[in-house]
Amino acid sequence: MEHLTLSRPAPDLAVVQLRGAGRVNLMSYAMLEELWRVANDLQSDRAVRVVIVTGSEQAFSAGMNLRQKEVSEFESYSIEERLQIHSIGARACKAWEDLHAVTIGAIEGYCIGGGLAFASALDYRVASSMATLSAPELRHGMNMSWQSVPRLVALVGPAKARRLIMLAEQVAAADALAWGLVDVVCDPGAALASAEAEAQRFLAMPAAPLRMTKQAINQAAGALSHAASYMDLEQYVLCQSTQAHRDSIDAFTGRS
């Protein structure tokens, strides 16, 4: 793998590190493909009971790299090609959400956009006190996709989801804890160690009841998630046709 590192500190514990572009650990379509494949591999490994996902020391991930050709030169692709390319985000998140193992995000620094969308598909989130979480997609002329809106609403409720997504507010770690967006706040630089400690708490629970309870909670929280978000991929492709999106991409890539 080029964009992820997988390690096994113990037979029942796996750690996946996001290795994205630049200082803020930007995601790519290649990384999402690897995340989807790794989720399927982990699902078939009966020994794995907890999986931790971490990023770099500076950022869990500040979202998708807007300089990727698939984003910056989207007009060169047909509608059908765009739908196929961008579908991997939702597929990767769903594969991680459906893992039998408990999943924990260890968040340092920025957790923004696609990084937040992916983190919301995990079961549990540990954040450094210096972490910042936000969903700035609307500012860039995009909708929040990857079927993440229902997950975020389930975590923080509709009122705070409006502030998070519709107003693109940045949320500091302490507020994210109060909102329910993260579950534990730790000292700077200690997110992975804190996530490992939380992993041990989950591993101390009986395996079968833990697995069944995770599934029950996910079903209760997300029973209508697909119905509410199944068209967000098509909405994203539609948003690409707006001038607001084109202006934002041009400004990011320096073409304005």
TrEMBL record:
* Name of the protein this chain belongs to: Enoyl-CoA hydratase/carnithine racemase
Spell out the InterPro entries in the cross-references: ClpP/crotonase-like_dom_sf (IPR029045), Enoyl-CoA_hydra/iso (IPR001753)
**What Gene3D superfamilies does UniProt report for this protein, alphabetically?**
2-enoyl-CoA Hydratase, Chain A, domain 1
The GO biological-process annotations, alphabetized, read as: fatty acid beta-oxidation
Which SUPFAM superfamilies does UniProt cross-reference here?
A: ClpP/crotonase
Q: What's a single GO MF annotation on this record?
A: catalytic activity
